[in-house]
């Protein structure tokens, strides 16, 4: 067995995105102990910077020590008690995964369906909550990574509040890429991933919980089914002050990387990062349209960082993606689920959202498609 | 906010251990996609090398994308069905954590207690299994990180088999540090961590499951309560062949690091690594005894990689550890639970198990204790 030297790719799929060399090099800094005072200081900085990225004052804002799927499970396993009715909006793969999470936590799932590529319909949510007065939680995906559609989180949260429901929001692909305001919009529980618009390596899941959400966790009648993800325990390690109770060994070096990516986000400015994603999308869109390639998602609800486009007729999906990967070291994403074979997903996330990538991707696609 | 530059410590606590520069630098290699053919090839190598490290042919041998506690939960959440009776051996912190896991999975826990610092008693296990004919699983910790005691996994597994029980074994601190033979000893489910004797960064949990264990998972009457840790789904991503079904985004760079640490283990040879841990322990022991510092655990069941020693009378635990950390950048471990304030845990794990560290640790301790 030999050391593994990965090829140098350009990552323009649905994530991971290209990771800035500063972040990779932060990851390789010397490991220290997970209870080292120097490490505890760094944890506090990560929390502070995450709060800013989420636009929240929630004290319970921290990265779960595992990928986005575990962040999702942290929200559902802690907030859903057996028998709780949860309204789940499904307009792509990740809404379906939310349903799985509700059921495995013993909850009762009421589904609101919208077509793939469409946003969650506030009208349907309103109707469903009105018809289910005993619903306790509304769950939806802000930025559907499987389709590239952005739902109106602010309006959906307003509706949920009106019906006395907590909200669980998937922001895996939105954090750092498009407008997201946890406090202003009244989101109660939110999870994201590090490998999308934060441009960090995959493996951590930033989450944030409102006091209202934490009250529900604190007052559960049954223990959270997961020991590893139980917020009552995790809070003891990620809590305030210098005293940290050992819970699990934090992924030290991965947290160095997240810290560095958040420093870079601060240096750029959150709103500037949102604007950059939008402006790169505009450039990519112009080039794709010139090639006659059309978008799946309507412009008003389109995520700039996740561009789902129809594969031109007669084009062999897998062959094109292989040629891009093998000849140009360029990764673009395949379609998931209903969109498999029909759609490409071109990511412009974090460090990948730059003009060099846009120009390169357009030229490589032109070559391979003989346009 | 500034970039975080950690102090350079010598890590001789209960883990993380010192990480070799080769492993840190592997971690900083360019991120590629989690479905990239090059990545899938690397995953297969990780599996092959982990099988060797565990001394098993189990096809289902792979790293869980989260720390050791999540590896523990993977075993219990998949193997314990509601109502299942599980005999749990408790001789330290991690046996207690196993009990928590059993109960949260809906199992019924029967406890076998041994004193902290002692090995699990095969006689008590035999008695308990004889008295609980309906028990389905025996769970115990091979190497108790909270005390430094090693239990006789081979004998315990024999007893379990005689009573038709599956076994779940915690090998977080033993893998790579002391003899461990999954197939020969007949272990059904085992989990470890990367940050101990593998000398890798924390964040992943290597696990392995026998066919008998997987049969129980496949034939469950209820779904595994965790979506993230459900082996039925994880197998689709870590399974055989080139086809991998997307489950969650793997922590790419952390896996580079694990790959490199396993390459290094192969280069050294597994049995050589075991012997090195033993020989470093002998050197440390000689020095400590010269200073009049005594061991908590009897020599015949003592883990060479985790040295629990009694804090000399009249010595201020926290003050000594602080001085070691602040003056010499040397981390040794505090006592956990019953041992808090009474015991130090000096780790000699992986890259930390070398003569430089032994000599340095002894000299620094002598200075601080004025011996």
Automatic annotation (TrEMBL), chains A, B:
UniProt cofactor(s): pyridoxal 5'-phosphate
GO molecular function: alanine-glyoxylate transaminase activity; L-serine-pyruvate transaminase activity
Gene3D superfamilies found in the cross-reference section: Aspartate Aminotransferase, domain 1, Type I PLP-dependent aspartate aminotransferase-like (Major domain)
PTM annotation (N6-(pyridoxal phosphate)lysine): residues: 196
Binding site for substrate: 345
InterPro entries reported for this sequence: Aminotrans_V_dom, Aminotrans_V_PyrdxlP_BS, PyrdxlP-dep_Trfase, PyrdxlP-dep_Trfase_major, PyrdxlP-dep_Trfase_small, SP_NH2Trfase/AEP_transaminase
Listed GO biological process terms: glycine biosynthetic process, by transamination of glyoxylate
Alphabetized SUPFAM superfamilies for the sequence: PLP-dependent transferases (SSF53383)
Annotated keywords: Aminotransferase, Pyridoxal phosphate, Transferase
PROSITE patterns membership: AA_TRANSFER_CLASS_5 (PS00595)
Pfam families in the record: Aminotran_5
Transmembrane region(s): none
Domain Aminotransferase class V: 38-335
Family to which this protein belongs: Belongs to the class-V pyridoxal-phosphate-dependent aminotransferase family.
UniProt-recorded name of the protein: Alanine--glyoxylate aminotransferase
Organism: Hydrogenovibrio marinus
């Amino acid at each position: 067995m030999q050391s593994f030297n990965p090829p140098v790719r350009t990552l323009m799929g649905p994530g991971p995105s290209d990771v800035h060399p500063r972040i990779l090099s932060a990851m390789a800094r010397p490991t220290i102990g997970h209870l080292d005072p120097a490490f505890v200081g760094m944890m506090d900085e990560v929390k502070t910077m995450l709060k800013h990225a989420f636009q929240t004052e929630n004290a319970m804002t921290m990265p779960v020590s595992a990928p986005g799927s575990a962040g999702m499970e942290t929200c559902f396993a802690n907030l859903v008690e057996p028998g709780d009715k949860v309204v789940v909006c499904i307009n792509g793969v990740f809404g379906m995964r939310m349903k799985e999470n509700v059921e495995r936590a013993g909850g009762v799932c009421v589904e609101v369906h919208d077509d793939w590529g469409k946003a969650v319909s506030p009208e349907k949510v309103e109707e469903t909550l009105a018809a289910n007065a005993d619903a306790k939680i509304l769950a939806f995906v802000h930025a559907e990574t499987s389709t590239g559609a952005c739902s109106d989180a602010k309006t959906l949260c307003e509706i949920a509040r009106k019906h006395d429901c907590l909200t669980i929001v998937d922001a895996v692909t939105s954090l750092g890429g498009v407008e997201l305001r946890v406090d202003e919009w009244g989101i109660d529980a939110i999870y994201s991933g590090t490998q999308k618009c934060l441009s960090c390596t995959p493996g951590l899941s930033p989450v944030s919980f409102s006091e209202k959400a934490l009250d529900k966790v604190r007052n559960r009648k049954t223990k959270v089914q997961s020991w590893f993800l139980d917020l009552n325990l995790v809070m003891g390690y990620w809590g305030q002050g210098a005293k940290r109770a050992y819970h699990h060994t934090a992924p030290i070096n991965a947290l160095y990387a997240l810290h560095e990516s958040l420093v870079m986000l601060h240096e750029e400015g959150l709103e500037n990062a949102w604007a950059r994603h939008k402006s790169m999308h505009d450039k990519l869109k112009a080039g794709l349209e010139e090639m006659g390639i059309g978008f799946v998602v309507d412009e008003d609800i389109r995520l700039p960082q996740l561009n789902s486009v129809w594969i031109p007729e007669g084009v062999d999906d897998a062959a094109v993606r292989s040629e891009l990967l093998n000849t140009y070291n360029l990764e673009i994403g395949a379609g998931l689920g209903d969109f498999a074979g029909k759609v490409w997903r071109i990511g412009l996330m974090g460090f990948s959202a730059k003009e060099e990538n846009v120009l390169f991707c357009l030229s490589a696609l032109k070559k391979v498609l003989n346009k």
